[in-house]
Amino acid sequence: MGDRLEGRVAIITGGGRGIGAAISSRFAGEGARVVIAQRDASVGSAHAESINAAGGSAVCIPADVAEREQLEALVARTVEHYGPPDILVNNAGIFVANDPLELTPDEWQRCMSVDLDGVWWATRAVLPHMIDRGGAVINIASTHSYLIVPGCFPYPVAKHALIGLTRALAAEYAARGVRINAIAPAYVDTEMVSRYFAAKDDPVAERARVNGLHPIGRMGRPEEIAGPALFLASDDASFVSGEVLMVDGGITTIYNGHGNPFVPGAGPSQ
After folding, report:
1. What are the structural domains, with CATH classification, of the chain?
2. Per-position pLDDT tens, the chain of length 270
3. 67 to 21, 58, 114, 122: CA distances (angstroms)
4. What is the largest CA-CA distance in the chain?
5. Residue 154, preceding bond cis, omega within 30 degrees?
6. Cβ atoms of residues 189 and 149 within 8 Å
7. For residue 131, what is the DSSP state?
8. Is the dihedral of CA 42, 40, 220, 11 positive or negative?
9. Using CA atoms, how far apart are residues 151 and 159, in angstroms rounded to an integer?
């Protein structure tokens, strides 16, 4: 347990599982009062209970990030429960992929509503509480924000746009005390990625292939994203705004602009 976020209020969307759960636990361990925004209330509540049992402070407020009204209610309930938010982590995301000409309007809208629009509306809801008072927004992007992977449309469209949203809002609000940054993970060993492997003809071989894509020799672990998120949320990053922190085991270092390491249908990063 530390105190780098002592007394601060942090909202983490999708904070009940995977990368979000690791961030929620790490922030609570550093003194933050954590709001887990999870569409599945049972998942979010179970993780909040585990944090509280470990001596932290957490509550689950159910919310679907695809619904603007629910995000506004999330922030209002956070203020009622803990006070105004100091930190927002836009972690919730989904992987949608189809042949562009086969993609349905509903698939397109579902991807954009969660992976892009939800980030904007959540940020829009917290900004009035942070402007001139100070705050940090951290968006979980992806290596798909930089590397185009055949067979993954439209997921990288949303993730590329997320970087633009991060930088544009950072430019607007940095002078008023709100730092807005992003983290771009490569493959991280979560339930979402495990489901991707399970859908393959040879899950063991596919896992080995994916591990080998990373120069570091393996996928990331959720807690390896939580550490960089803690840095960006803390005063240690007080001079960092509008940046994207690559936490990708070296994939973009060696491949960005020099060929694509992936294959069609390479799957999600979270």
Report:
1. 9-185+220-247 (3.40.50.720)
2. 789 999 999 999 999 999 999 999 999 999 999 999 999 999 999 999 999 999 999 999 999 999 999 999 999 999 999 999 999 999 999 999 999 999 999 999 999 999 999 999 999 999 999 999 999 999 999 999 998 888 999 999 999 999 999 999 999 999 999 999 999 999 999 988 898 899 899 999 999 999 999 999 999 999 999 999 999 999 999 999 999 999 999 998 887 544 455 543 445 555
3. 21, 23, 9, 10
4. 53
5. yes
6. no
7. T
8. negative
9. 15
Rounded CA gap, 36 and 28, in Å? Answer: 11
| Catalytically active residues, by annotation | 155
Q: How many helices (H) and strands (E) does the chain have?
A: 10, 7
This prediction's pTM = 0.94
Q: What is the DSSP string of 57-119?
A: EEEEEE--TT-HHHHHHHHHHHHHHT-S-SEEEE------B--TTT--HHHHHHHHIIIIIHH
Distances (CA, A) of 94 to 28, 110, 112: 25, 9, 9
- The answer to whether 2 touches 30, Cβ cutoff 8 Å, is yes
